[in-house]
Every structure is written in structure tokens, then in C-alpha cells.
């Protein structure tokens, strides 16, 4: 058994009762049950790491002493926490980092990793406190300034976040994460000034979705749609199922919609009117169940991007025979969405064409009934 124990004390009010299997109200109402539950909680954690743990809950605080079997306790805990963070297991990493911070409140590595984890979890006040303490202790910690800037930005404090990113870049001009985040704030008011930062960040982080989304959006703000589209397309291809990819898809759809409208000076597209009319006719013949299947298949296909400005009939469906252009499929989907969820945003405005197609469809039905 290792002769060097690891001990820390944590205020009871700083312990998250949500970690325990018993309701917080029941625990607060029964101090003995609370002490037993917390003791079992920490005993289980440290038993998994090897060795023995003694836990006491007295006078509003939790006192833990762990005797690891071998090795330095701090390093064992820290590397285990890092492995959990790498796998996205914040729930198990949290008590280890909290324990380390309670025992070593000025440990730079603990402050940095615990602060970033808290920031990612949305516990921003606590994250800002830890990361501010880190840069006070180590003023030349470029990544620490970057992490602080992210936490400040997430909390809505954009001016101080921008200052933190500038401090990071002053220390390390090659810090691409600081570039990306500084550019994101700058792009809101001065996209022309933000663009060089995004370009440099994208060169260093060519496969970072957040960087590419910011870069592409900045290009759109500057009216450089031809340059923005391939950047947004690459952003989607990296991880098509992510939220960032969805934002990039939305931006590309708006871009394609604007380009489509520009072809007719913002007026109605006769081809879209006819596509919508054909969809109304087809859906009436298919029935509601098959119409939904067609709509959902197109919507899923659209997650990979549909080129509505290319007239080539290069798309096929399992639920409908034939080949279709991107604009044709989007028109069919629009009609289907209006039947399934009329108030839902379809991602593109074909309301004018849809209205005109409905008039023609009603006219056909009236004539057919005579």
C-alpha cells in the first residue's frame, strides 16, 4: 500500500446531490442517509482506482482520504480524469477533477482541464472563476486565455472574451483556436477584419467544422457567395450529422435560394410552380401515407445537400420512379411538408409558387368534377 495518502475536503453545498441515486429532497431531510450516500459514492469511485478510501461527512463538509495501492495519487487521478474527458465521459471525470481541485487549488493542469469541462457543460460562472485564476497564476498561458475567452463568450460577455482572445494571440500568434474565436466575435460587426483571421485559422485547422462554418458565414456576410459555398460544403462533409453541419446546410440553402430567385429577378419561377402542381397531383394519387414517405426520403437526402441551381436530373428516390433535379425534389418536399406540418419552416420559401400551384390544382379539380 502506498504510504502517501490523497486527502481533500469539500463543502457539502458544493457537492452535486444529483450524482446520487436518491432524490435530493429525501437526502436533505435525512442527514444520516445523506452522509451514508456520499460516503458510498466516494468509496466506490476510489475503490475502482485501487486502494482504500475513508470518507466522513461532518460539520457541513465531506472529508476524503484515499490510500492508492501504488503510484502518485495526484497523477493517477489526473490521468484517469483526462482519459474520461477524451471519451466524453464528463460525469465520471467531474468528481475526480473536483477532488483534485479541492486538494490542489493552484494546479495549472487541473484548472485548465476542469475549467474547460465546466465551460462545455454550461457551468459558466464556475468555469470563468477557475480559468481566470489560471491566467492570474500563469499570465503567459495562451491556451488558458483562449479557454477563458470561450467561457466568457458563452456567458454573453463578448467584450471581455475578445480581450482574452487577443491576449492569447499576443502570447502565441499561431494559436488557431484563439484566431477562430476572435474572428467569430469580430465578424458580427466587422467581417472584413475577421476574414484574415478565419483564413489563417482554416489553414491550421482545415478539418475543424466550427472554423469552416465561421469562415463560410463570414464570406457570405461579405457577399462572396461563390467562395463561401465550397467552404460550407466541406464543413458538412466532415460530419454530416452534427449541429454545425446543420447550420452550414441552412446557410447553403439560403444561398441557393437567393441564387435561384436572382435568375428571375425575385419573381415566381414557372418551373417551380409546375413542380409543385405535379407534386399535388402525385400526392393525391398516392395517398397520405406514401406522400409522407416521399417527403421524408427527400428530407433525409437533403441532409447531404441538394443542388437546386443545377438543372441536371441527377437524383433518384426509392419511393418514386424517375430522375429529378435538386430543385424538383425540393419543390416536392415543400408540398409534402405543407401537408404534414404546414407551420414548419421548410428551409426555403416557395410560398408564392406553392400558392399559384394550388390555384391551378383547384381549377383542375373543379373542371374535372364538371
Mean pLDDT: 88
Assembly state here?
Answer: single chain
Q: Give the beta-strand count.
A: 5
Radius of gyration, in angstroms, nearest whole number: 28 Å
Q: Which strand order does the major sheet show?
A: 1-3-2
Low-confidence stretches: none
Amount of beta strand: 5-15%
**Which percent range fits the helix content?**
55-70%
Structural class: mainly alpha
Please outline the major beta sheet.
Answer: 3 strands, antiparallel
* First-residue to last-residue Cα separation: 95 Å
What is the count of DSSP helices, taking H or I runs of 4+ residues?
Answer: 17
Shape designation: elongated
Would you write up a description of this structure?
The longest helix is centred in the C-terminal third of the chain and has 20 residues, at 243-262. With 370 residues, this protein is mainly alpha-helical. The protein has helices at 24-29, 31-48, 73-86, 90-103, 108-120, 124-137, 142-154, 158-171, 176-186, 191-204, 209-221, 225-238, 243-262, 270-286, 288-302, 326-340, 351-369; strands spanning 6-11, 52-58, 61-67, 315-316, 323-324. The mean pLDDT is 88. Among the domains are: 1-104, no CATH class; 270-369, no CATH class. It is built from 17 helices and 5 strands.
What can be said about this structure in brief?
The chain is mainly α. Helices cover 66% and strands 6% of the residues. It has 17 helices and five strands.
